[in-house]
Structure formats: C-alpha cells, structure tokens
Amino acid sequence: MKVSDYIADFLEKKGITSIFELSGGMITHLLDSISQKTKINIVTMHHEQSAAFAADAFGRITGLPGIAMATSGPGATNLLTGIGSWYFDSSPAIFITGQVNRHEQKGANPVRQLGFQETDIVAMAKPITKAAFLVNNPDDIPSIFEKAFRIATEGRPGPVLIDLPMDVQRSQIEPLVKLLHHTVNTPINKDDLRTLVTDIGQAKRPLVLVGRGIKASQTQKYLDEFLVQTKIPVITTLLGFDVITADDRLRVGFIGVYGNRWANIAFGECDLLIVLGSRLDIRQTGADTKFIEDRKIYHIDCDACEINNRIKGCVAIVSTLSNFFNQFKEMSLSENFESPSQWIDHIAEIKKQWPDTAELKPLGINPNILMHQLSAVSNAAAAYLADVGSHQMWAAQSLQLKKGQLFLTSGGMGAMGFSLPASIGACIATKKPVVVLIGDGCMQLNIQELQTIIRNKLPIKIIILNNQTLGMIRQFQDSYFESRYQSTYWGYDAPDFAKVAIAYGINAKTISKPEECEDATAWLWNEENHNKPVVLQVMIDPHTNTYPKIAFGRPITEMEPFSKPIGMEST
User: Fold this and answer.
1) Which helix (H) or strand (E) holds 144?
2) Disulfide-capable partner of 551 in 109, 224, 429, 565 (CB 3.0 to 4.6 Å)?
3) Number of Cβ within a 10 Å radius of residue 364
4) CB 27 within 8 A of CB 21
C-alpha cells in the first residue's frame, strides 16, 4: 500500500473529518491521496499559520487531534507559531510536514542545506511539541502515526509533528494491526480526598478555580456534577471562561490581570481554593502571590510540574480530571454539602458595587456594554473567538455565554492573528455560526482568510473593534513611557475594514456611536445575514483603556486605575 494512501485511510478511520493546509510540492502525494481515497474535507487556507489556528479550534471542539499540513521549508516554519499556541494551551494536534527526498537531506554533512527548501523542522519544533518525528523508514509509518495520536491526546494534550520525506510518502508498505493503548487510572491518596471533603464542608468562603484543563480533558459533564454536589462558586481563567454559563448562580467571573474586579476580590477573600486544570500563571495571579498562599489550596492537575511551581504550599493531587472527579464522587457519596449562601450573596454585592460596564467612561462606544449587547442577540452562535489584546479582555470581562457556547482564544502564546482563521475551524467543527472578536492590529495579520471564509460560505460574524492603535501596548506606554506611542499610534495605521470586506464579497458596515450598537448587533443576525459571513467595524476611541487591571507588584485585589503599579510588567 502506498504510504500516502495509508495515511489518508488512517486519518479517516481515526474519525478525522476535516484537515487544514496550504499546498506545496512536498505534500502533494498526501493531498492527492486524501482527496481521492477519503471523504475528509480538505480546507485550503492562505497561510500555514492560519491552517494551524483553524486546526487548533477544530481540535479543541471535537476532542480529536486537529490536523494541519504544510510543505517543507517556509511552509513548515510558518506553522511554528501555531504549534507553540497549541502546546501552551494544551490542544491535541498532529502536524504533518513534507520534507525533501531522503537522498537530498544533508544529514551529518556540515553544509547548511542540500535539498531545495530542506529545513530541520523537527529540531525547531521539539521544544514546543510533545513529540516530533522525522520518518526515514517507511515501515515505521503505522507505529509512528498510532503513537502520535496517543501522545497528542493522552494526559495533558498537545501537538505532535511528523515530518515526511517526499520519497517516503510514495513508498510501499504493509499495513499493521492497530496498536492498543489502555489508560490506567492512578489511585489518589485517600487521605487527601477525605481531607478535601472535610474542608469543603467546613469552608465559609470556598472557590473553585477552573482552567483550560476541563475542556482539554473533555470533563465538562463531570465538572457540572461536581458543582451541583458541592455548591461551590466558580472563578475562571481566560481559557476556562466557557465552563459555566453567565446566568449560573455559582458563576463568579473571570480572574487575572484584567479580570472582573469583583472576581479578583473574591479570589483574595476565599478561605478554600480548589484548582482544576489551571497552572496558576502570572496572568492569573499577578506577581505578588503572598495573598493567596495563606489559605488551603488543592491543586489538581495531570502535569505534576505545574503544581507548587509559582504558588507554594498547595495540596498536590496529580491526576487526570476524570480520574479525580470519579474518585472524589466515590469518596463523598454520603456527604450533603451546604450551600455557602452568605458567601454567594457577598460576592453578588461586590459585583453590584463594581459592575463591568462602569469600569470605563470612554468617548463614544463603551466596549464592555457592546459585549453585553452582542451577547443578547447571539443565541445562535456556537462559539466566540477572541484574538489577543484589549478586545480580548473586554470580551472575557463582559460576554454573557449561554449553555453550550464556547470561548476560544490564544492564551499562553498570546498570538495575534488567531481568531479569524480559528473561526474557520470552529465553524466547520460545529456546523453553526460563530462570532469573531478582533482588533484592527490583529485583523491585519491574517486578513487573507476572508477569502477562505467566503469561498467556503461560512456564517462567521466578524466584529472588528477598531481603535486605530495597538491599544494594550499603547496603554502600557501611557504607564511607563510618558505616552510616547512609537509603533502603536505613531507610525501605525489601519485600512477601512468595511471596504476591505466588501472587496472580498462580504457584507459589511461601520458604526461609531453608542446609539448605533443595538441595531448593528441585531443586523449581524437578521434574516438576510443569518447564514452568511458579515463584518461589523466598530470604531473605538484610541485612548480607551482596558480596566480594571492589576497594579503590577501589588496583590490581585488592588487594580488600576485606583491603585498604581510599583514595578514594570510585561503587557
């Protein structure tokens, strides 16, 4: 059997229904086999980075490894930002790159390059993948692909790269029987579980902090049952934003550097913290972590390296989340946990005191209010996809997610240009409309994918918050560089995106006044536009800040503009 035919058949049998790629000479055998031998949908993008982001969203939603393909040399290197984003955000992926023929590889030869576009992508990708393989023996193909799928999805998910020389792709092999892999659930220390059950029963101000781990481990149902049983309020990280609906009484809010002020205050006041699938990084806790280390913390994560890393003194429970939920349920079957009603009411009062829509008093459109207006009319959206920057934080502060709606963004990598191509993968995976939230700076990184959207007739609603500057960095320059706006406002420009969208064949409009917002958000979903892509350009005053924001060097409860930073942070 021809290797490329085997790979095509293998992907289809694994349940892969769509792949994302940009063609090149070194993957033509693979593309031909997939198109001729399978029913897999080949989605051709206009940049390899876009293919990576689209596959990322597809993989996050389906739970299967997203598949992105690229040719050798620049095709493969263009995947690297996407690979890093998958790695940091724990998304399952298989990256397949073409490589020059084996006889064209330089091997140990000290020359820089032998074959045209020959590039050692395996060496480059190794630090940001769970595994990377250069396959020089065609007979290794079956076992490597089986191993790649297992590695990508087991434990903490992540990307695997397989680099295939062109002559390997056209070789003949004997298919092997599928290798079986059995997941072993490791018992959790029963004393830790008993103590956790006791502590939940005794806590007056408990919180559950939920991160990306819930979606990565496909344990949303288990979390829902856990919360019904324990009745503990929930704070979320940016990547855990979609684990609980906006109208759930147990939802507190989004925490972190730009978190909801009331959620950060509750974070600081809790007496018990249960961390599920979050690594407690600096964007979640701020630089001063002393405030959090004086309470009981249970940290549950399948990656032991993440526990007691920045936040010390945690009770470490190294386990998959499904294993933890099952063993906790078994341990606490006879328990009847009481709702911490006074604590929940106290949080509600803080929220009334510090509403998200009153943090800003901008000239013109208030982006936090806009998020509420958008949420009110976007019931049909399967997902919101936020890019990186001020608009990302406004979205996390103020979107009101309903049951089943997803929120996807680039977290650890913080890659500008993520949301537009990722929306393609999300729309294809869900077969429903999705909403893109993107700034003018991010829009210009992968704007070419408007063509992919229109070609595939995808009902993607694109809201461009155009503040005519790189707003988050501009705010940083206000704080630390005496408002010298080099390369953010000075020497920076953006086009009229409505005109650009129309040139691509996408219906578009622009608004600039608060009184236009309700009609404009409704326009996205009217009868004419409901099943079509549309672009709404929202003009935001360039000096609209992202507040609240932790005053760097201070505890998470002390936030700008009322508290001032005592050091310089990254943006």
Assistant:
1) helix 141-153
2) 565
3) 15
4) yes
Token pair 């820089």 in the structure block, residue: 112
Cβ neighbours of residue 347 closer than 8 Å, sequence gap 6 or more: 233, 252, 262, 266
Half-sphere exposure of residue 157: CA atoms within 13 angstroms, side-chain side:
27
User: How far is 16 from 10, CA to CA, in rounded Å?
Assistant: 9
Question: Residue holding tokens 């005592």?
Answer: 566
Which residue type does 497 have?
F
| pLDDT per position as a tens digit, 252-309 | 999 999 999 999 999 999 999 999 999 888 888 877 777 777 889 999 999 999 999 8
In whole angstroms, what is the distance from residue 500 CA to residue 413 CA? 28
HEC readout, 158-175:
CEEEEEEEHHHHCCECCC
> Which is it for strands 460-466 and 434-439: parallel, antiparallel or unpaired?
parallel
The string of DSSP codes covering 367-381 is: HHHHHHHHHHH-TT-
pTM of the model: 0.93
3-state secondary structure at position 298 = strand
Please tell me the distance from the alpha carbon of residue 17 to that of residue 31, in angstroms, as a whole number. Answer: 14
Structural domains present in the chain: 3-169 (3.40.50.970), 190-353 (3.40.50.1220), 361-547 (3.40.50.970)
Instruction: Determine the Cα–Cα distance for residues 571 and 560; give it in Å rounded to an integer.
Output: 14
Longest Cα–Cα distance of the chain, Å, equals 72
Averaged confidence pLDDT in the chain: 94
* Closest C-alpha among 322, 334, 234 to residue 274: 234
* CA 412 centroid distance within chain: 8
- Split at pLDDT 50, 70, 90, the class of 468 is very high
